[in-house]
Amino acid sequence: MGKGWKMDIRSIDHIELYVGDARQAAFYFGTAVGFRLRGQGGPETGLAGQRSLLLGQADIRMVLTSGLTAQHPASTYVQRHGDGIAVVALEVDDAAGAYAELVARGATPVTPPTTFTGVDAEVVTAEVGGFGDVLHRLVQRRGDRREFLPGAFEMDPPTGGDDGLLTEIDHLAICVPPGQLGETVAHYERVFGFSDIFTEHVEVAGQAMNSTAVQSPSGRVTLVLLEPDTSHRPGQIDAFLAEHAGAGVQHLGLRTDDIVTAVGALRGRGVRFAGTPGAYYDDLERRVGPVDAPLDRLRELSILVDRDHGGQLLQIFTESIHVRRTLFLELIERRGALTFGSGNVKALYEAKERELAATATAQGVGA
């Protein structure tokens, strides 16, 4: 980063989803995923044309916003893309300075610095373009951090803590159209001061994608950028781009300290997770080494395990709850691993092939 750099991107302050029905979405995230309602805003608090609900769990803050008019940005976003993450908010020391610096470096200006003042808190925000139709909101906080946007959100009285199953946002996985990965990575390096921390090409079953993870200097903001390789047959990245109508957040990675407990609890509340072939676990410890978790429990819950140079990670993906089958969640427990489980892509495919072969053999014997 060059001389005069004004930004210190500390972390993800919050994410904002634009959704067709904020109350319905809040019901799912609350009853199934364990978030608690922390505050709300709308026309009565000066948020014209929208209804917004603030949910929280540990250090994760999520805003669900629905447009109340056809012209509101949330309405037009949902019409084009369906429900999805439309704002990734970044906490900074100086929102006005960061905004000016980003625009000078080539970011698209969207909303100039705005100050929200309350009795015990002051919050300054500004917005610039990110990727596709997704914005970055710069957030500077002073005073009582429990206040979200003083004057614009009425905070609900505390109704007890959350269940502590999910602790923080680990990363966001973002799909970009073919040919745009390099320029998107360069944009985050040049404009936001991020660094390329991990790049790979994943190929399996005739499908392929390119992936690059970029990270803020603080290490607290990680974006995993995914691009389909069009020299291979279409796969899940192509499907997302078609259903979402362009670039966007494919999944939100949420960190947990105990994935077995978290998945068990969320399953009990109705969260549906992607299944895993039983054959995957037959080969697991040969592939990743001893796992400090009961294999029968991992198999029962369909939890995946991968290893990199730093250690192991355990992960699982939910099924999408959205009509377009786009945005979904990932639960991830890091046991030293620094990457994102790409070894599981090939392992899952090979396991499925073994399972299909075994089924075919059994059917042949029984014929």
Describe it for me?
This protein has 367 residues and is an alpha+beta fold. The chain has two domains: 11-155, Roll (2,3-Dihydroxybiphenyl 1,2-Dioxygenase, domain 1); 168-357, Roll (2,3-Dihydroxybiphenyl 1,2-Dioxygenase, domain 1), CATH 3.10.180.10. It contains ten helices and 17 strands. The chain has helices at residues 22-31, 73-81, 95-104, 181-192, 236-244, 259-268, 279-282, 284-288, 295-301, 343-366, and strands at residues 11-18, 36-41, 50-57, 60-67, 84-91, 109-117, 121-131, 134-143, 154-155, 168-175, 195-204, 207-215, 222-228, 248-255, 304-308, 311-317, 328-335. The protein has a nine-stranded mixed β-sheet. An eight-stranded mixed β-sheet has the order 11-12-13-10-14-17-16-15, sandwiched between helices. The protein is globular and about 75 Å long.
